Amino acid sequence: MIEFEDVGLRYGHGPEILRDLTFTVEPGSFHFLTGPSGSGKTSLLKLLLLSLKPTRGTVRLFGQDVSGLDQDALLRMRRHIGIVFQEFRLLDHLTTYENVALPLRVLGQPESAYRANVTELLEWVGLGERMDAHPALLSGGEKQRAAIARAVIGRPDILLADEPTGNVDPDLSLRLVTLFAELNKMGTTIILATHELPLLDNFSFPRMLLRDGEIVIHD
Ligand SMILES: Nc1ncnc2c1ncn2[C@@H]1O[C@H](COP(=O)(O)OP(=O)(O)OP(=O)(O)O)[C@@H](O)[C@H]1O
Asked: Which of 41, 44, 212 to mutate to test the pocket of ligand 1 (most atoms within 8 A of CB)?
């Protein structure tokens, strides 16, 4: 599903910040991406999200070398990938329900086609009672669950998460990763970047450890 072969990335004329990345992610798997601050986790997620192109090597997603794809094909592929950003990126002028429904609205779906799915998903992530609230009134954990719901409403094949537990207490962190694990059980491939190593010990998923731009452990 995801194949990297000797991938390198540099920003502008700067040094290579990702080097010699060669790995495969099988469909339906769950990987933690970890490593110290500045090791390149966010940059690697951007390559996976197709918002950055590698400066060398080959990235294959869904069996296709992404370097040969035109803008339309990249956008089509991008629809199969969901992302949860650390800073939520919810729109304050929309309700929680409207934020989660937004990706479907943008695709032109009528509300009658998605209302029941959005409501069901919000109930599943524990926001059934909060769906009419605006994000400013949600707690950090509620915002994060809304961001997760928005990322998965379009049923992406791959879900990327950048430090999704960055702003919440350890108990809630554990519950959020458990939520990702439940999504994974339903078939979504997940790559979750975090530097919270103790949290990972609660789960047996393989870890990719980035150090100075290279993967040093992938088990
Ligand atoms: N747009 C950019 N232009 C130039 N250099 C960048 C850019 N974005 C990131 N970098 C550099 O690339 C390196 C990797 O950064 P990246 O954000 O990918 O690491 P990270 O592991 O996600 O860090 P953190 O855990 O602190 O978020 C760092 O040295 C950073 O300064």
From this structure: 41
Q: Is 117 helix (H, G, I), strand (E, B) or coil?
A: helix
- Give the nearest ligand 1 atom to 39 CA: 21
Between CA 174 and CA 203 the distance in angstroms is: 10
Rounded alpha-carbon distances, angstroms, from residue 29 to 159, 185, 190: 11, 9, 6
Nearest residue (CA) to ligand 1, atom 18: 40
Atom of ligand 1 nearest to the CA of 195: 25
* ipTM exceeding 0.90, yes/no: yes
Across-strand partners of 4? 23, 59
- Ligand 1 atom closest to Cα of 86? 27
pTM of the shown model: 0.89
Q: Is the dihedral of CA 176, 119, 50, 91 positive or negative?
A: negative
Which of 84, 116, 90, 87 has the alpha carbon at shortest distance from 102? Answer: 90
Label residues 104-125 b or e (16+ Cβ within 10 Å = b): beeeeeeeeebeeebbebbeeb
Over the stretch 29-39, which tens digit does the pLDDT of each residue have? 999 999 988 89
